[in-house]
Amino acid sequence: MDNELVLHSHSDIQELIRSTFKESRDVFMYKKLSAEEREQQLSVLTIEQRNFLENEMKRSRRTVFENVMREEKITALKSIDITLQEDEMNVVDWLISDYNDFGPGNLDGRCACGRRLRYMFTVEHQVTRTKIQYGKDHLSAFLNIEVNEIDGVINELDKIDYELDELLWKINNNVYYHEYYNRIPDKTVVSESIKKHFEMNIPFLDRQINRLNKYFEKQMEALEEEQRKIQREVDLEERQKERRRIEELLQEKKKIEATLEAGRKAQREIEIKRQQQENERIEKLSQEKKMIEDKLIESVKAQLGYNAAFDEVAYLLVLNGQHSAVAISHIMANDFGFNKHFSVGIMHRPFIYFDVLLALKKQVDKGNLIMDESSNIVDCIFYVNPYREEDRNNESEELQQQTLSLF
């Protein structure tokens, strides 16, 4: 039977183990069979199954016999109710070869002394094949050991018979517990005895089931640990992937920041260059303006007489192309020696600014100048009146001269 392996959690495994032990306890008290009942149940088995059980029983008994002979360090024999030959005196050549328990109240066995027995042991010489039947008292005397040691042997043999009865009960009730073997993932750790039970279609003993449960629990714990290890590796890989993703994002961010910084740097260089060009343009305009002002001042000074009046200077500056009253005030203060003090107000204009306005407005009133509509409290702009009275008179004289010349 091939069952799919399912990896349980540790708590599931523990519950499974507990339930298994419960099942074992539920069937722990098996009925002890009489020799006749045991024979009757053995007779219905297949030849292979019967041979297997009987051989296993004999092998187990032989192990018990060999253990008592070895562990009790039997070094001498005592002839009881039988005469031993000289070549039969070596203790190592004797082994307990068989044992019969005829059941409570049954004395079907015979000791070498003739006494009827329930428990009958057979000792056999391995060379001469001499066999002797003894009860436990005479066997202890023959082997020169304590009777309670023989009781221990009987107890071990009873366990073997009890396990045989356990197997016969399970066969009779069709309870094999092979599923405990099928679910073991790694069957290489399973003992050959358990494997043989499975191959011969013999039920498992309770002690074998307990051992299979331990195999299962140990392997499940190993699988769980392997699963945890895999999960740790998966988690580590996920963390590494996330770390790589973050590093890639950081690298991409650096690239973007570098690109932006390069753009900002280029923009700053463009702005610096533009500012330089603007400064150069302003400087050039300033120089041109200064040259114009210098020419203007030179021209005005050339036109002025000695001790020219304030109003005359202001008016001549407009006539020579300077239109701003503020600019005229600065020129008159800086270049013509008039009051150089400045107002402490927010506009910081020369004190003579209002005097300049009065002088120029007089010319406006005379019709020589006009004040531009763009004038405001910050500055006033003045232009030569193209239609001033003086020009009209000059034009009238020219027209009269032209008329006279025709005649």
Question: Structural class of the secondary structure composition?
Answer: mainly alpha
Unreliable spans: 1-8, 20-27
What general form does the structure show? rod-shaped
Q: Averaged pLDDT, please? A: 82
Q: Roughly how many Å is the radius of gyration?
A: 67 Å
**Tally of helical segments:** 12
Order of helices and strands: HHHEEEEEHHHHHHHHEEH
How would you classify the quaternary structure? single chain
Count all strands and give the number: 7
Please list the strands of the largest sheet in the order they lie side by side.
Answer: 1-4-5
N-end to C-end Cα span? 150 Å
Concise synopsis of the structure shown:
61% of the residues lie in helices and 7% in strands.
Give a structural overview.
Strands 1-4-5 form a three-stranded antiparallel sheet. The longest helix is centred in the middle third of the chain and has 98 residues, at about 205-305. The protein has twelve helices and seven strands. The chain is mainly α. It is rod-shaped, with a radius of gyration of 67 Å. Helix 1 (about 10-25) runs antiparallel to helix 8 (about 205-305), helix 3 (about 45-70) runs antiparallel to helix 5 and helix 10 crosses helix 11 (about 355-365).
